[in-house]
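Format notes (please read before filing issues)

Several people have asked whether sequences and structure tokens are stored in separate files. They are not. Every record keeps both together, in the order shown below: the sequence lines, then the token lines. Line labels are part of the format and must not be stripped during preprocessing.
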Amino acid sequence: MPGAQDLDPGDSVEQYLGNMVREARLALGREWTQSRLAAKVFSSSTRISEIERGEDPPDRELARKLEVVLQLPPGSLANLVKILSQQTVRHYAKVLSRQSVRSYAKTYMRRQLEADAIHEFSMGVPGLLQTGGYARGLMERGAAGSPAEIDGFVRTRLERQVVLGQPEPPWMVVVVDEAGLHRKVGGSEVMREQVEHLLSMAQRPNVNIHVLPAKEAPVMGSFALLTLPEGKRGAYTEGFSTGNYTEDHKVVMRFQYVHDLLRQDALGPRASMELMRSIAMEHDD
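Then the structure lines:
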């Protein structure tokens, strides 16, 4: 994690924006701590720290609030956020063009970038929340191909996660089967890092993770529901080497009903984090 002194505003738009926020805050005086700025824009000091480090840029609404409070020119931050959004779209188009993206998943991935909300159930860790080590462990177990091909699949999976890193990310509600968090995909160290990554992601304001206790019955397989602009919805199911995306209303509502039942049996966000902490410690053994 870079400190403020390690940042180079020329490295990326995110770091340039973060440097602007930090310099403007410090210019207001010593009493302008990250906590004070956070209170003024109705955010948290952790969020301000992430912005200043160039790790997680603000959405347009927060950017406009920061402009007013920090006495920056109107649009100076919001326009950078707009540029970041355009970069995300171009980057995603390149990802979709690769051979490592299965044809049956391309429509779903394209819709995923547009989604306002994602509701997902997985017997393992969903792709958007996977670490590189965990993704590689899955690929190797599934005999996805040669080492070079597996490298390509892993790279593509990780680059898809830009969906959650864009300036205005979707609201994500995930139900994860507890049994999947105990499995040693890639080994103990990989699983510890994976569970710790879930804990980190769960602290984001747009990510809500529920763990379905092992005593509760899951459904076989994994599925995701997308809520798109103007209320349109879609459902995606995936198996070992196949997947299907549909926007048929009856099918989507059937999966929504299943997701609601699973979420009802799952632990709440706080209890889920406590359980994940204990599972992370288990993988230290």
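For reference, the curators noted about this record: Residues 78-96 form the longest helix (19 residues). Confidence is low (pLDDT under 50) at residues 1-5.
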